[in-house]
Design a protein that fits this description.
Length: 443
């Protein structure tokens, strides 16, 4: 059993990593295309490679951490990866946002290689760090206390996501007002990159110091045999496939968000971006609350069905933004963005809930701990899909295509249409049939 203080310490670890991941996911493509003038296709490739790296890293280090014995690993089977991964993740994040200090703007090759190297290292260390950390949860908590731990993680992820996405929006406004990543804007960007990196590292220290790892004696495992067991789990495979398809749409929407609010909605000042970021935060809070309450009463699967169906209706409306008479464009944009984030919040709330439940049930059925494999392997199809999303964004923004950004919604809807019927084939509420306890956590 964890004390209340230990539950808080474990949950707040995600604050810094969530900030970093949100900034990279939302701002990297925009910054390299709009302020450093990297070719969109090269930008898409550089970001896509990072997503492939995190998929491989998450699976491999999830398996490795599963295979270690807490009795023989000097720094613990999970803690070892956190001690090493946290500072290296922060370093790679900072370097990712410093090319303007080192690489000439005219060097497309230099800028591309800088993005490729540091983006890949960031995602490598993210998988190295987060998969063992996430796999630690079933080992240090009992089912009856997991809800409380997950509640802390939800709040932490919510604020981390708000800080990360909000910073990306505000920084974009500052950069535009400064005419690029120059002068004060460049200094501010570097300063916050360092601050966020330090915060990310510091947030892990209380948990590492105060929580002891559960003694787990493991026998030597074969990675392919462990993976074969996981892939025989129908619910696991169905969820991975459906979420991977949905991830293409989520990636497109997230990566093009800054372009959409600036080009289509005309939000070019820091104040406009701040208001938009605040509204998106409120939408995410309301969405998390709504889907959490609904899932406790009706189940995760029904909550997902409702959120998907809502998005199927709402997302195509991007083609109408700015064309509705009597309503100012900025108000139309705020309304659309609010409900788009509200609907999409379910896709951020439930993925780790489902994977953690599947891993927990598997351990009860087989008496073998595979939380690292379950947590890590699902990153491969998800990040392959996200890599495809980045490539598609690069193609859509290339001079040959140059698609009108109002078509973002219908494009995202295509992936929703494909993902929904596949998602319906799975069961995600097997613990609810036995207990009202439910894990609610985000990525």
């Amino acid at each position: 059993m964890l004390t209340l203080r230990q539950k808080i310490f474990y949950g707040i670890c995600r604050f810094g990593t969530t900030i970093l991941l949100n900034v990279v996911f939302v701002a990297t493509f925009w910054m390299y295309s709009n302020t450093i003038n990297l070719d969109p296709m090269l930008n898409g490739i550089g970001n896509a490679v990072g997503k492939l790296v995190i998929g491989i890293s998450s699976f491999f280090f999830g398996f490795v951490s599963d295979s270690l014995s807490s009795s023989t690993a000097k720094y613990g089977r999970r803690k070892l990866f956190i001690w090493i991964g946290a500072p290296l993740l922060g370093l790679s994040f900072t370097m990712l946002f410093t090319p303007h200090f080192i690489i000439p703007d005219s060097s497309q090759t230099g800028i591309f290689l800088w993005l490729l190297i540091w983006n890949s290292l960031f995602h490598f260390f993210y998988g190295f760090l987060l998969t063992p950390y996430q796999s630690w949860l079933p080992e240090i908590t009992k089912p009856e206390e997991r809800v409380g731990v997950s509640a802390v993680m939800n709040i932490t992820n919510l604020f981390g996501g708000a800080v990360g996405s909000g910073f990306a929006l505000l920084m974009a406004g500052i950069i535009q007002e400064s005419g690029g990543v120059v002068g004060d804007a460049a200094v501010v960007l570097l300063s916050f990159a360092i601050i966020f990196s330090v915060v990310e590292i510091v947030m892990f220290i209380p948990a590492l110091v105060s929580i002891k790892e559960k003694h787990v004696a493991t026998k030597k495992k074969n990675i392919w045999k462990e993976l074969k067991v996981a892939l025989k789990n129908k619910n696991y495979v169905v969820w991975m496939i459906s979420y991977a398809i949905l991830s293409v749409g989520i990636t497109i929407m997230s990566v093009l968000m800054l372009d959409f609010v600036h080009v289509v909605l005309g939000l070019n000042t820091t104040l406009d971006n701040f208001i938009f970021a605040a509204l998106m935060f409120v939408a995410m809070v309301l969405g998390f609350y709504t889907w959490s309450i609904l899932s406790k009463k009706k189940g995760i699967k029904l909550s997902l069905i409702i959120s998907y169906c809502f998005l199927l209706i709402w997302m195509p409306l991007t083609i109408l933004v700015g064309k509705i008479p009597l309503i100012p464009l900025i108000i139309q944009g705020y309304i659309f963005g609010f409900f788009a984030v509200f609907g999409m919040s379910a896709a951020f709330l439930f993925p780790y809930v489902i994977i953690a439940d599947i891993a927990d049930k598997d351990e009860k059925d087989t008496l073998e701990n595979r939380s690292g494999v379950y947590t890590g392997f699902k990153s491969i199809p998800t990040n392959i899909a996200q890599a495809g999303g980045f490539i598609l964004v690069g193609y859509l923004l290339s001079p040959e295509t140059n698609i009108d950004l109002i078509w973002i919604g219908p494009i995202v809807t295509v992936f929703l249409v494909i993902a929904l019927p596949i998602m319906l084939l799975g069961d995600y509420d097997f613990f609810k049939k036995k207990s009202k306890d439910m894990i609610t956590e985000t990525d």
